[in-house]
Specification:
Blueprint lengths: L4 E6 L10 H10 L4 E6 L1 H8 L6 H14 L7 E5 L5 H12 L2 H5 L2 H12 L7 H4 L1 H10 L5 E4 L4 H17 L9 E4 L27 H10 L19 H9 L4 H10 L4 H27 L2 H29 L3
Parallel strand pairs: 1-2, 2-3, 4-5
Helix pairs in contact: 3-13, 4-8, 4-14, 8-9, 10-13, 11-13
The chain binds tryptophan (TRP) and iron/sulfur cluster.
Iron/sulfur cluster binds next to helix 11 and helix 13.
Length: about 325
């Protein structure tokens, strides 16, 4: 018996980095316990990137590859592209009729992001961007999902989604929508190579599908204890990126490694070499699986088409009820 129904999604921003792995590995686990819908939300990508849509198909493809490579399983989960299932748009429109503007305007993510991006010279004070959380609510509620694995930054959107569900049920006097709960994804503990937050825009990331040589190269670039010059100098692993990574990729030996670092009995070169090996062992299976799918674009298409059909049937059943409740 499934514990419930999950919907989660990501904007197609191209291939993912290892900071995203904890989220995806969590999804892979959840698909054993829940009925899962995982969607690549291309319409949401348009809210901020409406003027640069050329690479959207490629980004969708890369994201699908990353998901499949880490074990999101099309036999277990429904994997699809948001814009393939038009019912999200219909529900978004119908919800827009009952959504007070003030609810959207007070959403903490809204003003912050508009301001942030306007500093970068981008005007996203658009109708579409204001409606971002509403489209997200439609994504979730169109499947009547009761559980949504997300990061902490998404909690306001989830709360907003619950308010929409409540308002709809109240206005049309039917318990059509559940009030979904968030399950918080584990935050990634991995900093970027330079110790800042790992991000594509800082170019301090390691891709999930990083090639073996590039992986070694990147580990070599990681920021270590800067006061260590000779390999016999005592080091401070607490301020070293490599040491944090060993905690994830070499969990059994991390205490010994840190001790050797403090005593100056291990050099940074050797320490990094060991990390690169460990990471290679962890990431190689993902890369292999990715290659398998990358060589079969027809298969990806088929997976997304099957996902679309399954999602659509579910979504259409909900809309049938919605239209009826609203006398449409
Ligand atoms: N807003 C989410 C993010 O940026 C992406 C998203 C869109 C989503 N629709 C969703 C997440 C539905 C969970 C459920 O991460
Ligand atoms: Fe970091 Fe390892 Fe060098 Fe210590 S030995 S500073 S943990 S890279």
């Amino acid at each position: 018996m499934f514990k419930g129904r999950i919907l989660s999604g990501m904007r197609p921003t191209g291939s993912l980095h290892i900071g995203h792995l904890s989220v995806l590995e969590n999804w892979a686990k959840l698909q054993e316990e829940y009925e899962c819908f995982f969607t690549i939300v291309d319409w949401h990508a348009l809210t901020t990137s409406f003027n640069e849509t050329e690479s959207i198909q490629e980004n969708i493809h890369e994201m699908a590859l990353d998901w499949l490579s880490v074990g999101i399983d099309p036999e277990k989960s429904c994997i699809f592209v948001q814009s393939h299932v038009k019912q999200h748009a219909e529900l978004h429109l119908l919800f827009s009729m009952i959504t007070p503007l003030s609810w959207l305007e007070r959403c903490p993510t809204y003003k912050d992001q508009v301001q942030q991006l306007s500093k970068e010279g981008k005007d996203i004070a658009t109708y579409g961007f204001l409606g971002y959380p509403l489209l997200q609510a439609a994504d979730i509620l169109v499947y009547k999902a009761d559980t949504v694995p997300v990061g902490e930054d998404q909690l306001p959107h989830l709360e907003f989604c619950r308010e929409i569900a409540r308002r709809f049920n109240y206005l049309y006097k039917r318990e059509i929508f559940p009030e979904p709960r968030a399950v918080l994804a584990k935050v990634s503990l991995l900093p970027g190579l330079d110790k800042r937050k790992m991000s594509k825009s800082y170019n301090n990331y390691i891709a999930i599908n990083e090639a073996k040589d590039a992986l070694q190269q990147k580990v070599r670039q990681m920021v270590t204890d800067p006061s260590r010059i000779h390999k016999t100098d005592p080091g401070n692993p607490d301020i070293c990126v490599v040491s944090t990574y060993h905690g994830i990729y070499t969990p059994d030996e991390v205490t010994d490694i840190q001790e050797s670092c403090k005593q100056g009995t291990i050099g940074c070169v050797a320490c990094k070499k060991k990390l690169a090996q460990q990471m290679e062992v962890a990431l190689a299976p993902y890369r292999d699986k990715r290659d398998y799918y990358a060589q079969r674009p027809g298969l990806i298409k088929e997976i997304l088409q099957n996902g679309k059909e399954k999602a659509e049937a579910r979504a259409e059943a909900t809309l049938h009820e919605v239209r009826k409740a609203m006398h449409l």
